[in-house]
C-alpha cells in the first residue's frame, strides 16, 4: 500500500463499484423485455378489458377515415351518428385500458415483492439493496403501467385509423394509394430506430436513478450515523452525482425522441406534397376526379398522421420495456434455496438433533475466503451447545447454515439425521427460533405485531405471555399505548435492551424445537440480562439450543462448549473439562476476558430484586388493561386519515419558479413549440389551397399543384427543425427540474432534525418513494405538458385567426361550440383532484412495508413471514388500486365527452357551411378553410384536455414536493450560524435538563438531570435498560433539544454553537454499528471530512484492532461490507465503526456499548486501544459491563430521569443500600 497518499473521502459508492455499476448499466441499456411479455401477468379479467378496449379503440380509430367518405356531404344525421359512436368508444377504450393497466401494474408490484422475498439470502448480500427494490417498485412500475395502459388503447386506435384510412383510399383510388405507400418504409424504419435508441437510453437513465434511490434509502435509514459524522454534504454530493448521470441520459433520450418525431413529420409532410402533385398529375393523365383525389389523399393523410402519432406511443413502450427488464428478471429468477418450494420431507415432528458433517463454506459474495474448513459438530437432542471463538471465526455462520440461509460448499447439515436440503424449507424453519445479535423490529408495526411475527394466528394472551417471559411486560406496560405502541423505523423508539427483549419474546412465542441464540443478551443491562437469562433457560428446557456469545460467563452452563478456531472445532467439552487444559484455546479466552472478575463483578441485580411468579402477574394484568383500553385513548391521525383532508393547495407557479434558471431555455422551447403549433393551421390553409387548385383549368392545375407540393416539403423541414429543437430545450428544462427537485428534496430531508425521522410517515421507504416518483410525474408538466400547451395554444389561436379571416360568420357560429369542450375538460380535472393524493400516500405506506422486509430479510426468512409481508403489502395497495380504477373511469368519461363535442363540432361545421354557401354568404373554398381551421383548433383543445390526468396528478405531486421543501428543521446542520471555538477543552455540563421524546410526550426520560464533568474525564453512565443512557448521548450530539435546562460545552450552550462543528468534535461508536454498503476503506474514511490518507486509514484500523482481519480478506480494505455491513461479523463491524470514530481524532469520545459485540481477545485489545485514545479526551461511556466502566473518573447512575448517585467506583461501592452497590452485588453462580 502507498502510505501517506491522499484519497478522496467517499460517501456511499466506491470507485470500483461505480465502474462495475457503469458496466452493468451499459449492458442493461442494450437489454429490454419483448413487448408482448409486458402482459405476462394479466388475468382473464384483464384480457377481457383489453379485448373490449381494443375493439372500442378500433371503432374509435375508423371513425375519422369514415368521415372522409362523407367529406363532401353536409348531412348532420351522419355526423351525429359518428359523434355518438365515437363518444361511446372513447369512454370504453380509455376506461378499459387504464383499469387493466392499473391492475396489471399492481400485480407486477406484488409479484416482484413476493419474488424478492423468495430469494436466498446471498442475493441480498451482493446483488440487490432495499433502496433499489423501492426505486423499482415505485418508479419503474409507473413506466410499465404507461406501457400497458391507456397508451396501448391510443396506439390501437391510431393503428386502426391508419389501416382504415388506407382501406378507404384503396377502395376509392388504388393506383394513387399505391404510389402514396412509398412513404411507409422510411416511416417504419425511422420509427424502429427511434424505439430502439430511446429504449436503450431510458434503461440507462433508470439504472442511474436506481443508484440514487439506493443512496437515499441508505442515508435516510442510517440518518443518526450520517448526522453524527456530519456526513450530510457527502451524502448529497453522492446523490447528486447519480442524478447528474440520470440527467445526461434523460436529455439524450428526449433529444432522440424529438429528432425521431421531427423526422417522421418531415417524411409525412413531404409525402403529402408528393401526393398532391401526383394527384394533380392523375387528374390530368388518368381522368381522376377532384373528389376522388381529395378522398384518397385525405384518407392517406389521416392514416399517415395516425401512424406518426402511434410512433409517439413507442417511446412509452420502450421505456416500459426497459423498466420491466430488471423487474421481470427478478420475478423469473429461481433461487437456489427456495422459501416457497413445497418440495422436501415433512416429518411428524423433530427431536432436534443437529449435526454439521465436514462442512466447507464460504460466503457467495466472497467465494475464495473459506470461513469453515472441514467443520464437524454433533449436538444431541435437548442439549445446549455453546459456540465461542474470536470475532469473525464463524460462529454466526454456523447459525446461518442451520437456518439454511446458505448451503455449504461441501459437507452436510443434518437435523435428526436428515440433510437440511431434503427437508421442506418453510416447515423446518418453523421448528427453529432465532434471536440474533442485532434485533430487527419492523417500524410500520406495533410491539404487539412484532411479537406476533413469532407465530401465525397468535392471540393477545399468547403475545402477553411471551412478553412476560422475556421480561418485556414491565416496560411495555409503562408506554401510553402499551402493546399497540409503534416501534419506529428499525425500532428506534426503543432502547437496545428493549428491542432485544421484544425479539426474545417473538422467538419464545414461536415455541421452537431448536433455539438459536446469537448474542441474545448482549444488549441487556445486568438486571434484565439475569432475568431474561433465567427466562431463556426455562424456554430452553427440552429443546436443542445453540448459544453464541462473547461473554463466556453466559455459556458456562452449556452441556458442552465448542471453540471455533480457523474454521474448525479447535476444542470441545464442558466448562469444567475445558478448564483442565491450561494451554487450550478456551483457557486463553478465559484469561483474556479475566473471567474470574467478570463472574464476581459483572453488573447484576441483587437477589432481593429477583422477580418471582407473583410479581410477574402485575404487568400481565396491566398489559391486558392497557390493551383493552386503547379505544379510549386519543391517537395521532394516521397518514391515510390525514390525507383525506386533501393535499394542500400549491400553485404551479411555485414549481415554475424552481425552473427559473432555465427560463431562457424554456422561452426558446416555447417559441419553437409555438412555431410547431402554427404549422398545423398553415397545413390546413395549404390543404384548402390545394383543393381550390383541383378545380382550376389544366394549365393552372399543373403549375399550382407543384407550388403547393413544394409548400408541403417546406412545412416538413420546418416541422423537423421546430419539433427537434423544442424537444431538446424542453428536455433540458424538464430534466434539470427533476434533478433540482430531487436534489433539493433530498438535501432538505437529510438536514432535517432527527425527531422528524421518528415520525412513521418519514421513514426511509416512504421518503424514498416520494423522491423516486414525485419529480418524475412533475417533469411531465414542465416537459411534455408545457410543450403541448404552448403548441396547442398556438394551434388554436392561429386556427381561429385563419377561420375568422376566411368567414367570420361561419367561424363565430362554430366558436360557440368550443366552450363545451373546455367545460368537459375542467370537469374531468376537478373530479380527479382528491383521490390521487390519497393513493399516493397509501403507496408510500405500502412501500415502507416492502422496504422494511427487504432490509430485514434474515428475520423475515427465519420466521417464514414472506407471505405475511406480501399480504400486508397487498392490503395497503387495495385502496390506491381502487383509486386508480376510478381514475380510469373518470378519464374515459371526460375524453368521451370531449370527443362527443369535437365530432359534434365537425357535424355542425358541415351543416352551417352548407347553409352559408346556399345563401351566398361564403364560397366553397372559404368553407374548407374554416373547416380545416376548426379541425386543427379542436385538435389543440383536445390535446390540452388530454393533459387533465397528468395535470391533476402533477398538482398532487407538486404539493408533496413543497410539503418537503417547506419543512423547517428545528436543528439544521446545514446552517453555518453559531460559534466555533478555536480550542476545545471538553468541559460538559447538563443543568436541570428535562426531556421527553416528541412522539412520546407522556413519558418523561429526564426530569431534572444535572451532571458536570471536566475536560479529559471519563464518565460512565449506568442504569437499567431504557433509563436514558443513550438519550444522554443523543442530547449531547444535539439530535434533540431538551424541553428545559441547559447543556453546555466549555461553558457555552451547545444550541449556540455551530451544529456541524459541534458534531465534528465528537466521535461516536454506537451499540449497533451502522456501516454503509461500501468498501471498508470508505467506511473508515467516512469519519473524517476532506481528504484522508491511506496511512490515516491504516493507523485508525490498527488502533481499533481491525487491521489484521481486514488484511486477511481477499480484497483487504477494498472489501465491500454489504448492505448494513452484512458481509462482516458483529465484532468486525464494531471495530470498523471504532476506526471510523478515532480517525477524526475527536475531542469528545462517545462510546455507547462500543465493545459489546467483541470477543474476549478483541475486547481487551480494543479496550486498551480506546484507553489510549481516551487520554486527554472527554469520554462518555455507556456500558452494562463493570470491566468497561470501573476505571472511569466518574460513574453516574441514572434512575427515574435523574442522577441518583455519582462518584468513582471505589466510593459508590461502599454506599450501603446504594443503587450502584446493589448493581454490583455478586451474581448468583450459574
TrEMBL record:
One term of GO molecular function: ATP binding
GO CC, alphabetical: mitochondrial inner membrane; plasma membrane
Sequence ranges assigned to domain ABC transmembrane type-1 in this UniProt record: 93-319, 667-953
Chief location bin: membrane
UniProt cross-references to CDD domains, sorted A to Z: ABC_6TM_Pgp_ABCB1_D1_like, ABC_6TM_Pgp_ABCB1_D2_like, ABC_MTABC3_MDL1_MDL2
One Pfam family this sequence matches: ABC_tran
Cited InterPro entries: AAA+_ATPase, ABC1_TM_dom, ABC1_TM_sf, ABC_transporter-like_ATP-bd, ABC_transporter-like_CS, P-loop_NTPase, Type_1_exporter
Segments crossing the lipid bilayer: 47-71, 174-194, 255-277, 297-325, 663-687, 707-734, 786-804, 810-829, 889-912, 924-942
Superkingdom of this protein's organism: Eukaryota
Residue intervals of the ABC transporter domain: 354-591, 988-1225
Keyword Nucleotide-binding in record: yes
Similarity section: Belongs to the ABC transporter superfamily. ABCB family. Multidrug resistance exporter (TC 3.A.1.201) subfamily.
Name of the featured protein: Uncharacterized protein
Gene source species: Gossypium stocksii
Lineage per the UniProt record: Eukaryota, Viridiplantae, Streptophyta, Embryophyta, Tracheophyta
